[in-house]
From TrEMBL:
It is found in: Periplasm. Its main location: periplasm. One of its GO terms (cellular component) is periplasmic space. This is Cytochrome-c peroxidase. The keyword Heme applies. InterPro entries: Cyt_c-like_dom, Cyt_c-like_dom_sf, Cytochrome_c_Peroxidase/MauG, Di-haem_cyt_c_peroxidsae, MauG/Cytc_peroxidase. Residues 306-326 are annotated as: Disordered. It comes from the Bacteria. It comes from Pontibacterium sinense. Residues 1-20 form the signal peptide. Heme c 2 binds at residues 202, 205-206, 277. Pfam families: CCP_MauG (PF03150), Cytochrom_C (PF00034).
Length: 326
Protein backbone atom coordinates (compact mmCIF):
# COMPACT_ATOMS: atom_id res chain seq x y z
CA UNK A 1 0.00 0.00 0.00
CA UNK A 2 1.42 3.38 -0.96
CA UNK A 3 1.35 6.35 1.40
CA UNK A 4 -1.19 8.37 -0.60
CA UNK A 5 -3.65 5.47 -0.73
CA UNK A 6 -3.17 4.82 3.00
CA UNK A 7 -4.02 8.42 3.86
CA UNK A 8 -7.07 8.33 1.60
CA UNK A 9 -8.26 5.17 3.33
CA UNK A 10 -7.81 6.70 6.75
CA UNK A 11 -9.72 9.79 5.68
CA UNK A 12 -13.05 7.92 5.53
CA UNK A 13 -12.94 6.91 9.19
CA UNK A 14 -14.65 9.99 10.52
CA UNK A 15 -18.16 8.62 9.95
CA UNK A 16 -19.71 6.63 12.78
CA UNK A 17 -20.50 3.71 10.46
CA UNK A 18 -16.87 3.49 9.37
CA UNK A 19 -15.70 3.63 13.00
CA UNK A 20 -17.97 0.71 13.90
CA UNK A 21 -16.21 -1.51 11.38
CA UNK A 22 -12.69 -0.56 12.45
CA UNK A 23 -10.60 -3.30 14.15
CA UNK A 24 -9.62 -0.78 16.86
CA UNK A 25 -12.12 1.00 19.07
CA UNK A 26 -11.65 3.95 21.46
CA UNK A 27 -11.26 3.36 25.19
CA UNK A 28 -13.85 5.11 27.33
CA UNK A 29 -13.34 6.42 30.89
CA UNK A 30 -14.25 4.02 33.68
CA UNK A 31 -17.07 4.87 36.06
CA UNK A 32 -16.66 3.16 39.44
CA UNK A 33 -19.86 1.98 41.16
CA UNK A 34 -18.31 1.61 44.63
CA UNK A 35 -15.76 4.32 45.29
CA UNK A 36 -15.10 3.15 48.85
CA UNK A 37 -14.02 -0.25 47.53
CA UNK A 38 -11.81 1.40 44.92
CA UNK A 39 -10.11 3.54 47.59
CA UNK A 40 -9.50 0.47 49.77
CA UNK A 41 -8.08 -1.40 46.79
CA UNK A 42 -5.83 1.54 46.00
CA UNK A 43 -4.33 1.42 49.51
CA UNK A 44 -3.76 -2.32 49.25
CA UNK A 45 -2.19 -1.92 45.81
CA UNK A 46 0.43 0.43 47.22
CA UNK A 47 0.93 -1.31 50.58
CA UNK A 48 4.25 -3.22 50.85
CA UNK A 49 3.07 -4.87 54.07
CA UNK A 50 1.33 -7.47 51.91
CA UNK A 51 4.81 -8.84 51.21
CA UNK A 52 7.04 -10.81 53.58
CA UNK A 53 9.83 -8.25 53.33
CA UNK A 54 7.52 -5.29 53.88
CA UNK A 55 9.21 -3.80 50.82
CA UNK A 56 7.32 -5.04 47.74
CA UNK A 57 3.86 -3.88 46.73
CA UNK A 58 1.74 -4.45 43.63
CA UNK A 59 3.09 -1.13 42.40
CA UNK A 60 6.68 -2.42 42.58
CA UNK A 61 6.26 -4.50 39.43
CA UNK A 62 3.29 -2.62 37.98
CA UNK A 63 4.44 0.93 38.59
CA UNK A 64 1.74 3.43 37.72
CA UNK A 65 4.39 6.07 37.08
CA UNK A 66 5.98 3.83 34.42
CA UNK A 67 3.12 2.65 32.23
CA UNK A 68 1.96 0.04 34.75
CA UNK A 69 5.18 -1.98 34.40
CA UNK A 70 8.67 -1.98 35.95
CA UNK A 71 10.61 -1.52 32.67
CA UNK A 72 12.70 -4.59 33.48
CA UNK A 73 13.16 -7.72 31.31
CA UNK A 74 11.87 -9.74 34.26
CA UNK A 75 10.88 -8.42 37.66
CA UNK A 76 12.91 -8.53 40.87
CA UNK A 77 11.01 -10.14 43.72
CA UNK A 78 11.53 -11.34 47.27
CA UNK A 79 15.16 -11.69 48.34
CA UNK A 80 16.23 -10.29 44.94
CA UNK A 81 14.87 -13.29 43.06
CA UNK A 82 14.52 -12.74 39.31
CA UNK A 83 11.08 -13.49 37.98
CA UNK A 84 10.57 -15.95 35.13
CA UNK A 85 8.76 -13.61 32.75
CA UNK A 86 8.24 -9.95 31.83
CA UNK A 87 5.67 -8.10 33.96
CA UNK A 88 2.75 -7.12 31.71
CA UNK A 89 1.18 -3.72 32.19
CA UNK A 90 -1.71 -3.40 34.61
CA UNK A 91 -3.14 -0.53 32.56
CA UNK A 92 -6.31 -1.58 30.72
CA UNK A 93 -5.82 -5.10 32.08
CA UNK A 94 -9.55 -5.32 32.80
CA UNK A 95 -10.00 -5.66 29.02
CA UNK A 96 -7.99 -8.91 28.88
CA UNK A 97 -9.71 -12.24 28.33
CA UNK A 98 -7.53 -13.65 31.15
CA UNK A 99 -4.56 -12.55 33.26
CA UNK A 100 -0.85 -13.43 33.11
CA UNK A 101 0.95 -14.29 29.88
CA UNK A 102 -0.29 -17.88 30.06
CA UNK A 103 -3.83 -16.97 31.13
CA UNK A 104 -3.73 -18.96 34.35
CA UNK A 105 -5.91 -16.42 36.20
CA UNK A 106 -9.40 -15.96 34.87
CA UNK A 107 -9.79 -12.38 36.10
CA UNK A 108 -8.12 -9.54 38.01
CA UNK A 109 -9.25 -10.82 41.39
CA UNK A 110 -7.65 -14.20 40.86
CA UNK A 111 -4.51 -12.54 39.51
CA UNK A 112 -4.21 -10.26 42.56
CA UNK A 113 -3.79 -13.20 44.88
CA UNK A 114 -0.99 -14.85 42.92
CA UNK A 115 2.00 -12.57 43.63
CA UNK A 116 1.27 -12.32 47.37
CA UNK A 117 1.79 -16.06 47.87
CA UNK A 118 4.50 -16.53 45.25
CA UNK A 119 7.86 -17.16 47.01
CA UNK A 120 9.73 -15.38 44.18
CA UNK A 121 7.45 -12.36 44.13
CA UNK A 122 6.02 -11.02 47.39
CA UNK A 123 7.12 -14.12 49.31
CA UNK A 124 4.21 -14.18 51.76
CA UNK A 125 1.09 -16.33 52.22
CA UNK A 126 -2.54 -15.34 52.07
CA UNK A 127 -3.13 -16.12 55.72
CA UNK A 128 -0.11 -14.12 56.88
CA UNK A 129 -1.09 -11.15 54.72
CA UNK A 130 -4.58 -11.20 56.22
CA UNK A 131 -3.10 -11.45 59.71
CA UNK A 132 -1.15 -8.26 59.07
CA UNK A 133 -4.24 -6.38 57.88
CA UNK A 134 -6.29 -7.53 60.86
CA UNK A 135 -3.84 -5.86 63.25
CA UNK A 136 -4.30 -2.47 61.59
CA UNK A 137 -7.39 -0.59 62.83
CA UNK A 138 -7.56 1.62 59.76
CA UNK A 139 -7.91 -1.41 57.53
CA UNK A 140 -10.38 -3.12 59.87
CA UNK A 141 -12.61 -0.06 59.64
CA UNK A 142 -12.29 0.20 55.85
CA UNK A 143 -13.11 -3.48 55.28
CA UNK A 144 -16.08 -3.20 57.66
CA UNK A 145 -17.38 -0.22 55.69
CA UNK A 146 -17.05 -1.91 52.29
CA UNK A 147 -17.91 -5.52 53.12
CA UNK A 148 -19.95 -5.19 56.37
CA UNK A 149 -18.00 -8.07 57.85
CA UNK A 150 -16.00 -8.19 61.06
CA UNK A 151 -13.42 -10.53 59.57
CA UNK A 152 -11.00 -9.80 56.72
CA UNK A 153 -10.59 -12.55 54.13
CA UNK A 154 -8.22 -12.94 51.22
CA UNK A 155 -11.17 -12.91 48.81
CA UNK A 156 -12.08 -9.45 50.07
CA UNK A 157 -8.46 -8.30 49.73
CA UNK A 158 -8.19 -9.43 46.13
CA UNK A 159 -11.68 -8.17 45.29
CA UNK A 160 -10.74 -4.67 46.47
CA UNK A 161 -7.44 -4.68 44.58
CA UNK A 162 -9.27 -5.79 41.43
CA UNK A 163 -11.83 -3.01 41.87
CA UNK A 164 -9.02 -0.45 41.90
CA UNK A 165 -7.24 -2.05 38.93
CA UNK A 166 -10.47 -1.90 36.91
CA UNK A 167 -10.25 1.88 37.06
CA UNK A 168 -6.80 1.91 35.45
CA UNK A 169 -7.97 2.50 31.90
CA UNK A 170 -6.23 5.07 29.71
CA UNK A 171 -8.75 6.90 27.52
CA UNK A 172 -8.27 9.99 25.38
CA UNK A 173 -5.17 8.83 23.49
CA UNK A 174 -4.47 10.92 20.39
CA UNK A 175 -5.50 7.93 18.29
CA UNK A 176 -8.84 7.71 20.13
CA UNK A 177 -9.42 11.38 19.40
CA UNK A 178 -8.66 10.66 15.75
CA UNK A 179 -11.06 7.71 15.68
CA UNK A 180 -13.76 10.01 17.04
CA UNK A 181 -13.27 12.44 14.18
CA UNK A 182 -10.40 14.79 15.07
CA UNK A 183 -8.22 14.56 11.97
CA UNK A 184 -5.59 16.82 13.53
CA UNK A 185 -5.06 14.58 16.57
CA UNK A 186 -2.32 12.52 14.90
CA UNK A 187 0.25 13.18 12.19
CA UNK A 188 0.05 12.10 8.57
CA UNK A 189 2.90 9.69 9.29
CA UNK A 190 0.88 8.08 12.08
CA UNK A 191 -2.17 7.86 9.83
CA UNK A 192 -0.08 6.09 7.20
CA UNK A 193 1.29 3.86 9.97
CA UNK A 194 -2.20 2.78 11.01
CA UNK A 195 -3.12 2.00 7.41
CA UNK A 196 0.04 -0.09 7.09
CA UNK A 197 -0.58 -1.70 10.50
CA UNK A 198 -3.83 -3.01 9.07
CA UNK A 199 -2.63 -3.86 5.57
CA UNK A 200 0.28 -6.04 6.71
CA UNK A 201 -1.96 -8.01 9.08
CA UNK A 202 -1.11 -6.73 12.57
CA UNK A 203 -4.79 -6.31 13.44
CA UNK A 204 -5.36 -10.05 13.16
CA UNK A 205 -4.05 -10.24 16.74
CA UNK A 206 -3.89 -6.61 17.90
CA UNK A 207 -7.49 -5.43 17.74
CA UNK A 208 -10.31 -4.23 19.95
CA UNK A 209 -10.14 -1.46 22.52
CA UNK A 210 -6.84 -2.67 23.95
CA UNK A 211 -5.27 -3.71 20.63
CA UNK A 212 -4.59 -7.12 22.14
CA UNK A 213 -5.32 -9.08 25.28
CA UNK A 214 -8.21 -10.98 23.71
CA UNK A 215 -6.50 -14.06 22.25
CA UNK A 216 -3.57 -16.44 22.65
CA UNK A 217 -1.15 -16.73 19.76
CA UNK A 218 2.04 -18.69 19.13
CA UNK A 219 5.20 -16.63 19.46
CA UNK A 220 7.09 -17.31 16.22
CA UNK A 221 4.22 -18.32 13.95
CA UNK A 222 6.12 -18.12 10.64
CA UNK A 223 9.69 -18.32 11.95
CA UNK A 224 10.83 -19.64 15.35
CA UNK A 225 11.46 -17.12 18.11
CA UNK A 226 14.82 -17.85 19.78
CA UNK A 227 14.99 -17.17 23.51
CA UNK A 228 16.63 -18.50 26.65
CA UNK A 229 13.41 -17.89 28.59
CA UNK A 230 11.89 -21.16 29.79
CA UNK A 231 8.23 -20.02 29.83
CA UNK A 232 6.03 -22.54 28.04
CA UNK A 233 2.99 -20.30 27.62
CA UNK A 234 -0.59 -21.57 27.50
CA UNK A 235 0.51 -25.22 27.52
CA UNK A 236 1.52 -24.81 31.17
CA UNK A 237 -2.19 -24.26 31.89
CA UNK A 238 -3.86 -26.62 29.42
CA UNK A 239 -1.26 -29.39 29.41
CA UNK A 240 -1.61 -29.56 25.61
CA UNK A 241 1.50 -29.62 23.48
CA UNK A 242 -0.31 -27.71 20.73
CA UNK A 243 -0.47 -24.73 23.12
CA UNK A 244 3.28 -24.62 23.74
CA UNK A 245 4.72 -21.14 23.21
CA UNK A 246 1.27 -19.61 22.86
CA UNK A 247 1.01 -16.42 24.90
CA UNK A 248 -1.73 -13.91 25.52
CA UNK A 249 -1.34 -11.20 22.92
CA UNK A 250 -0.12 -8.10 24.79
CA UNK A 251 -2.04 -4.85 24.60
CA UNK A 252 -0.45 -2.14 22.49
CA UNK A 253 -2.06 0.64 24.50
CA UNK A 254 0.67 2.84 26.02
CA UNK A 255 3.25 0.60 24.34
CA UNK A 256 5.74 3.45 24.11
CA UNK A 257 5.93 3.29 27.94
CA UNK A 258 5.99 -0.47 28.50
CA UNK A 259 9.42 -1.51 27.24
CA UNK A 260 11.19 -3.93 27.14
CA UNK A 261 8.94 -6.02 24.90
CA UNK A 262 7.81 -9.64 24.50
CA UNK A 263 7.32 -12.22 27.24
CA UNK A 264 11.07 -12.44 27.84
CA UNK A 265 11.66 -8.67 27.78
CA UNK A 266 14.41 -9.15 25.21
CA UNK A 267 13.69 -6.18 22.94
CA UNK A 268 14.00 -2.59 24.14
CA UNK A 269 12.98 -0.50 21.12
CA UNK A 270 9.64 -0.25 19.35
CA UNK A 271 11.42 -0.23 16.01
CA UNK A 272 13.05 -3.59 16.68
CA UNK A 273 9.83 -5.02 18.12
CA UNK A 274 7.88 -4.09 14.98
CA UNK A 275 10.63 -5.51 12.75
CA UNK A 276 10.77 -8.80 14.66
CA UNK A 277 6.99 -9.25 14.84
CA UNK A 278 6.52 -8.55 11.13
CA UNK A 279 9.09 -11.18 10.19
CA UNK A 280 8.28 -13.87 12.77
CA UNK A 281 4.49 -13.55 12.88
CA UNK A 282 3.63 -12.30 9.40
CA UNK A 283 6.55 -13.41 7.24
CA UNK A 284 7.20 -9.88 6.05
CA UNK A 285 10.39 -7.84 5.95
CA UNK A 286 9.43 -4.21 6.37
CA UNK A 287 11.44 -1.26 5.11
CA UNK A 288 12.73 1.27 7.61
CA UNK A 289 10.22 3.87 6.44
CA UNK A 290 7.38 1.40 6.93
CA UNK A 291 8.62 0.54 10.42
CA UNK A 292 8.88 4.25 11.22
CA UNK A 293 5.28 4.83 10.13
CA UNK A 294 3.97 2.00 12.30
CA UNK A 295 6.00 3.22 15.28
CA UNK A 296 4.57 6.71 14.79
CA UNK A 297 1.09 5.18 14.97
CA UNK A 298 1.93 3.12 18.06
CA UNK A 299 3.08 6.24 19.87
CA UNK A 300 -0.39 7.74 19.42
CA UNK A 301 -1.81 4.97 21.64
CA UNK A 302 -0.60 6.53 24.90
CA UNK A 303 -3.70 7.67 26.75
CA UNK A 304 -4.41 9.58 29.94
CA UNK A 305 -2.34 7.95 32.68
CA UNK A 306 -3.75 7.28 36.18
CA UNK A 307 -3.71 10.57 38.01
CA UNK A 308 -4.65 10.62 41.67
CA UNK A 309 -3.34 11.51 45.07
CA UNK A 310 -1.21 8.74 46.57
CA UNK A 311 -3.13 6.99 49.35
CA UNK A 312 -2.20 7.56 52.98
CA UNK A 313 -1.74 4.05 54.37
CA UNK A 314 -3.07 3.34 57.86
CA UNK A 315 -0.28 2.87 60.42
CA UNK A 316 0.77 -0.47 61.88
CA UNK A 317 0.33 -1.20 65.58
CA UNK A 318 2.42 -2.96 68.20
CA UNK A 319 0.62 -6.17 67.22
CA UNK A 320 1.49 -5.93 63.52
CA UNK A 321 4.07 -8.59 62.51
CA UNK A 322 7.40 -7.07 61.65
CA UNK A 323 8.85 -7.25 58.10
CA UNK A 324 11.13 -10.21 57.36
CA UNK A 325 13.38 -9.29 54.43
CA UNK A 326 15.45 -12.48 54.69
Amino acid sequence: MNRRYGLALIGILTSSSALATEPVQPIEPYQASNQAKVELGKKLYFDPRLSKSGFISCNSCHNLSMGGTDNMPTSIGHNWALGPINAPTVLNSSLNLAQFWDGRAKDLQEQAGGPIANPKEMGFSHSLAVNVLETIPGYKQAFQQVYTNDRIGIDQVTDAIAAFEETLVTPNAPFDQFLKGDESAISDTAKAGYARFKSVGCTACHNGQALGGNSFQKMGLVKPYKTDNAAAGLSAVTGKEIDRFKFKVPTLRNVELTYPYFHDGAVWSLEEAVDVMAELQLGQKLKQQEIGEIVAFLKTLTGDQPNFRLPQLPPSTNDTPRPDPG
